[in-house]
UniProtKB/TrEMBL annotation:
InterPro entries: AAA+_ATPase, DNA_pol_HolB, DNA_Rep/Repair_Clamp_Loader, P-loop_NTPase. PANTHER family: DNA POLYMERASE III SUBUNIT DELTA (PTHR11669:SF8), REPLICATION FACTOR C / DNA POLYMERASE III GAMMA-TAU SUBUNIT (PTHR11669). Gene3D superfamilies: P-loop containing nucleotide triphosphate hydrolases. NCBIfam families: holB (TIGR00678), PRK07940.1 (NF005926). Residues 26-227 form the AAA+ ATPase domain. This is DNA polymerase III subunit delta. It comes from Paeniglutamicibacter antarcticus.
Length: 382
């Protein structure tokens, strides 16, 4: 098993990265870009594992079986830091901590590798703090930044990084990976790969989680129920409720686990009161949980809006008779009826309305207000 096995459809990228590992002197800064589902974070971890791999032959590194490869992929290697923010944006203090870490010499491996997920969440001021370390890093440090596209990172940063561009793999490649790695049946894997639009992480979640499939199905069917203003308002409330429930469930579980771990570390019983001198630590946990819940809700809403976009994408495919496969082919009868009752230009306008709602939510507009405005625009036109 190789560290590259979880990167279906990325043969050219894998070849380039393996060449960089074999040369033994990789660039000091890398920018991995690709749309959601392209596997840019997986590629960054695989590259880090290959750099630290213990095989003597440089051309074969990235075996996936030595201690270095296993610990990098598990997130426990002492010389590989995987950084991801749970806030809306990275804070300056987060980046300063990274810069300090970059100065340390590796303890067990040839390189100290720092992977920064969602580098596009850095503000210009925060990115400028990172700039000098990217320009003049220690000789043993390799930075790997991940972002959706090069345009999402300041030009001063991307001009100092070696670029690696990934594309979303095709559906067959994702389905094959799910069968091979996760033991799914061919039918389960094909359905998950199709409705996730080849997003590996979402495909895996949909294939394994019946509740996630149910939420997605309810979301995709919402346009079929919108006929009036009251329908639109009710559908908006339901969509926000579905997304909030999904985000809250995962966030609450993690917050409780963190609070329990902190109590254990401080020697406090589950039901004992928190001493005054330790309340600040629990307060910090609560604040982090609130920020995490807010971002989780926004991310869940965004996923729901992408799922809803696939409904109108399929409608447009039918209206234009393009012959392209439907994402939601199990709703074929409903999609044909909807397509026959409207015009392509109206469908495009609805897709634009969903895109506008995503932009508004990203700009911190109250989610319910943004979704209500969108749902009103999704009403059938006369």
């Amino acid at each position: 098993m190789s560290v590259w096995d979880d990167l279906p459809g990325q043969e050219k990228t894998i070849t380039a990265l393996r060449r960089a590992v074999a040369e033994g002197n990789p660039a000091h800064a890398w920018l991995f870009t690709g749309p959601p589902g392209s596997g840019r974070s997986n590629a960054a971890r695989a590259f880090a594992a290959a750099l630290q791999c213990q095989l003597p032959d440089p051309a074969m590194r990235g075996c996936g079986e030595c201690k270095a490869c296993v610990t990098v992929l598990a997130g426990t290697h002492p010389d590989v830091a995987l950084i991801a923010t749970e806030k809306v944006n990275y804070q300056i203090e987060d980046v300063r901590e990274l810069i300090t870490k970059a100065q340390d010499r590796p303890s067990t491996a040839p390189w100290r590798v720092i992977i920064v997920e969602d580098a596009d969440r850095m503000t210009e001021r925060t990115t400028n703090v990172l700039l000098k370390s990217i320009e003049e890093p220690p000789p043993h440090t390799v930075w790997i930044l991940c972002a959706p596209s090069p345009a999402d990172v300041l030009v001063t940063i991307r001009s100092r990084c070696r670029s690696v561009s990934l594309a979303v793999p095709n559906r067959a490649a994702v389905a094959e990976l799910l069968v091979r790695r996760d033991g799914l049946t061919a039918e389960q894997a094909e359905f998950a790969a199709r409705v996730s639009q080849s997003h590996i992480g979402i495909a895996r979640r949909l294939a394994r989680d019946e509740e996630a499939r149910r939420r997605r199905d309810r979301t995709v069917r919402l346009p079929l129920r919108i006929r009036s203003v009251s329908d639109a308002v009710m559908a908006a409330a339901e969509l926000v409720e579905l997304s909030t429930a999904e985000a809250t469930a995962s966030s609450t579980e993690r917050s409780e686990a963190e609070a329990t771990a902190l109590r254990t570390a401080l020697g406090l019983a589950t039901d004992s009161p928190v001493p005054p001198q330790q309340r600040s630590q629990f307060k910090a946990l609560e604040e982090n949980a609130k920020r995490r819940a807010r971002r989780s809700t926004h991310d869940a809403l965004d996923r729901s809006l992408i799922d809803m976009t696939t409904f109108f994408r399929d409608v447009l495919v039918l209206q234009l008779r393009s012959g392209t496969d439907l994402v939601n082919d199990y709703l074929s009868d409903n999609l044909h009826a909807y397509a026959n009752a409207s015009r392509p230009e109206a469908t495009v306008a609805k897709i634009d309305a969903i895109a506008q709602a995503r932009v508004r939510i990203g700009a911190n507009v109250a989610p319910l207000l943004a979704i209500e405005a969108m749902m009103l625009a999704l009403r059938p036109t006369k």
